[in-house]
Design a protein that fits this description.
By secondary structure, the chain is α+β, with helices and mostly antiparallel strands. The protein is built from 14 helices and 19 strands.
Length: about 500
């Protein structure tokens, strides 16, 4: 691997191929947005690609939770033209296409849904950082030109970029990105937790999330691999309950790593899979793995690093770390640390992570959680309605419609809502993320950072309740750009 610099952008390259595969990586993704601006990074990516001339080059772009990449494979001169065109487009986005590309994003999102990993992140961080991936947000139609240009000007700059190239580095390559340093990323604050918890989510699959302040901890990585192998043997091969066991690692900072272990389940058997997942984790915390299990995990990494495209994967990892400000470790360094791991070290690493554990199951599962592990609701709940101004639907609606047997309380601290099932949800004013207008433009949905959503509509609670909510947090009221034909929420 060679490291050079082109126009202030670090470039990681290696030969060994006749054609060139390259990717321009930026340290920005969905975690860097807010609920109100979800999809803005993706929209910038779409606008940049839309500005490029038609080509038969194999090229595309992708926006992930923490990075955005533009990549291409082909002859070196064609790849060079693609990369330079992307840089020019990012410097001057075709914002006249915002409405069209927002429509494309809406179509693209029709087939997507929240995942178990997203639900786990949301259980930890609410609607901040990676927790934002659990939500579609208000929609890209709420993104205006000023928001899009400001986001691009802050994040899509040379100080926040890196390039990797496998194959001939294009001669005369230029990367004319806008000048700018790497922005300081907001580190989301996790919900307070002093021991393992479990929760219910509205997505399929069972998952376990662990956090560590030691991202280079090979023992924890080996422990998660061992746990995954045990689960495959028990849940899939032994009992036919599951098809796939996957793990995913996300580094939010050099000293903050989240590791998720996710298991799918046969219909109606999620509770058994959840029991197996927690029992496997608890066993490893108590007794650790065997020597053979550790050796098998290390052999798996050796095989992965011996694959045909391992060199390309290492280049991509180097560029990703350079763009995101994370420490880079070569494949050889990582393998050496894994080979030094002992069963005792795995046990201690898992024990350190145990107080951070979040276990998630679908909310359709009849299950009471592991013994001794408390349940923590996914959103902010209260034991009862607090004191304050009470609003309720008209008595005749409550009499005839069970769904109207709800209540809203507004106080100096926030709002509380009792739903038709009798559960009370609370949102402090300081944790209101957005007021999203309803489809008819006459009411709002109050979105809380802790995942609670409360509908406040004049047909339900009256105009006075709506006015009081909008008056409390006026800056949170979202409005469609004028070009989209926004309807304003009427507040007397």
């Amino acid at each position: 691997m060679q490291r050079t610099v082109v126009d202030g952008v670090p470039v990681f390259s290696a030969g060994g191929r006749e054609r060139t595969t390259a990717a321009l990586v930026f340290g920005v993704g969905l975690r860097d947005e807010t609920f109100a601006t979800i999809e803005v990074t993706h929209l910038v990516e779409h606008l940049a690609m839309a500005a490029l001339p038609r080509t038969h080059l194999r090229c595309n772009a992708v926006t992930d939770v923490d990075s955005t990449s533009f990549f291409a494979t082909g002859r070196p001169e064609a790849v060079r033209a693609f990369l330079e065109a992307v840089c020019r487009a990012l410097a001057d986005l075709p914002t006249d296409r915002i409405a069209a590309e927002a429509g494309v994003l809406q179509a693209e999102g029709c087939g997507s849904a929240s995942t178990t990993v997203s639900a786990l992140w949301a259980a930890r961080y609410g609607l901040t950082g990676p927790g934002l991936t659990v939500s579609a947000g208000p929609g890209p139609e709420y993104l205006d030109e000023d928001t899009v240009r400001a986001h691009a000007a802050r994040w899509f700059v040379r100080g926040n970029a890196a390039l990797w190239c496998h194959g001939p580095l294009p001669a005369g390559l230029r990367l004319p990105l806008p000048e700018g340093p790497r922005p300081v990323r907001r580190l989301p604050a996790p919900r307070p937790q002093d021991g393992p918890v479990w929760t219910r989510t509205d997505v399929p699959g069972v998952g376990l999330l662990l956090a560590t302040d030691r991202p280079a901890d090979a023992a924890l990585a080996v422990g998660v691999q061992v746990a995954g192998e045990r689960l495959r043997e028990r849940a899939r091969h032994g009992r036919g309950l599951s098809y796939a066991v996957d793990s995913l690692t996300l580094d939010l900072a050099p000293d903050r790593r989240e590791v998720a272990l996710v298991v799918d389940a046969r219909s109606g058997r999620d509770a058994e899979v959840a029991d197996l997942l927690w029992a496997t984790f608890a066993e490893l915390c108590a007794d650790g793995p065997s020597d053979a299990e550790v050796a098998h995990a290390v052999a798996g990494l050796e095989a992965e690093l011996d694959e045909e495209d391992a060199a390309g994967a290492e280049l991509a990892d180097a560029a990703y770390c350079a763009a995101t400000g994370l420490p880079f470790r070569t494949a050889a360094q990582t393998l050496a640390t894994w080979r030094a791991v002992t069963p005792a070290a795995v046990r201690e690493a898992l024990r350190r992570a145990e107080p951070t554990a979040v276990l998630a199951v679908p909310d359709t599962v009849a299950w009471e959680g592991p013994a001794g592990v408390p349940r923590r609701p996914l959103c902010g709940t209260l034991p009862e309605l607090p004191m304050g101004t009470l609003f309720r639907p008209p008595w005749h609606r409550r009499l005839l419609d069970p769904a109207a047997r709800v209540a809203l309380v507004l106080s100096d601290e926030g709002l509380a809502h009792r739903d038709a099932d009798g559960d009370v949800h609370g949102i402090p004013w300081s944790r209101v993320e957005a007021l999203v207008p309803t489809a008819d433009g006459r009411g709002v949905t109050v979105v809380g950072r802790d995942l609670c959503c409360v509908l406040v509509h004049p047909d339900l609670y009256g105009r006075r309740a709506l006015a009081a909510v909008v008056e409390r947090v006026p800056a949170a009221l979202l409005r469609l750009p004028e070009a989209a034909g926004a309807e304003l929420v009427p507040v007397p």
